[in-house]
Amino acid sequence: MSGPDKNELRSRLEFAVGAARAAGEHALSYFQATDLVVDQKDDASPVTHADREAEQLLRVSLVASFPDDAVLGEEFGEQPGHTGYRWYLDPIDGTKSFVRGVPLWGTMIGLEFDGQPAAGVVVFPALGEIVWAGSGLGAWWANNLTPLQEGETLPDEIRSARVSEVADIRDACMSTTSVKGFDEVETTRGYDRLRRAVSMDRGWGDSYGYLLVATGRIDIHVDAQMHIWDVAPMPTIIEEAGGRATDRAGARGIDLEDFVATNGRLHDRVLELLNG
């Protein structure tokens, strides 16, 4: 199976960076608002007007720019397409953090081509950080975002995103979104083995933990429960930054129930510990 045309992919990636920044800025206008209305979805997870409006902004932009691509979003479901490209939208990854006024939430866009991860963007509007990557195009990072200007997509000051070089699990720093998530799928023993093996464990959760891996600030991020729109940007971002991204069984892809991202050097050992 051949991969996407590089020019087509680069065009979509640059579009996605600008679209994610615009949607993230819209969501930011609701962040820490005293009158924020929070509803409950059928699975009891929270959703806000910011989630819905940000996803609508993304969809409108996508339809205008790439009308024949497929789209799947967390809030409004699927729109079919026939180009081989499929977009995944998570307008606010970390809504629980968002509604509590914690800035570790992000606007996420993932892209696959013929069922394989092709590109990803995650922007953290409250922190001024963004990371993005395309298959064969590298991974990039900026941590000094300013408000998006008309006609702008990429930030002014960009650096290469690279994972850490830590090779000994005893020196590693790891994070997870929810320890309780491991309890709910009965994999706590594996998590505990990993936690005891590393030097430091923290709760830098949701997509922010994966940003930290991709930029070399931590070495491991693991999550026990994932949706497809949570995973979609991550394989490309982590791998283009030099790391590895799989599920606990070692499978690569987007439609995974759990997710493990590392600097690559530690990956096999992390999987051994998680699986016992």
- Over all CA atoms, what is the radius of gyration? 18 Å
Total DSSP helices: 9
Major β-sheet annotation: 8 strands, mixed
The name of the CATH topology of the largest domain is Fructose-1,6-Bisphosphatase, Chain A, domain 1
Per DSSP E runs of 2 or more residues, the count of β-strands stands at 15
Overall outline: globular
From the coordinates shown, what is the CATH architecture of the largest domain? 2-Layer Sandwich
Structural class: alpha+beta
- Class of the largest domain in CATH? Alpha Beta
Task: Please give the alpha-carbon distance between the first and last residues.
Answer: 35 Å
Features:
276 residues, alpha+beta, Fructose-1,6-Bisphosphatase, Chain A, domain 1, D-Maltodextrin-Binding Protein, domain 2, 2 domains, five-stranded mixed sheet, 9 helices, 15 strands
Structure in words:
The protein has 276 residues and is an alpha+beta fold. The chain folds into two domains: 6-160, Fructose-1,6-Bisphosphatase, Chain A, domain 1 (2-Layer Sandwich), CATH 3.30.540.10; 169-275, D-Maltodextrin-Binding Protein, domain 2 (3-Layer(aba) Sandwich), CATH 3.40.190. It is built from nine helices and 15 strands. The protein has helices spanning 6-28, 49-65, 95-99, 179-184, 188-197, 207-214, 228-231, 234-240, 267-275; strands at 38-40, 46-48, 70-73, 77-79, 85-93, 106-113, 116-124, 129-134, 138-142, 159-160, 173-176, 200-202, 220-223, 244-246, 259-262. The strands form three sheets. It has an eight-stranded mixed β-sheet, sandwiched between helices. It has a five-stranded mixed β-sheet with strand order 12-11-13-15-14, sandwiched between helices. A hairpin with a 4-residue loop joins strand 7 and strand 8 (129-134). Helix 5 packs across helix 9 (267-275). The chain is globular. The chain starts with 5 loop residues before the first helix and ends with a helix. The mean pLDDT is 94.
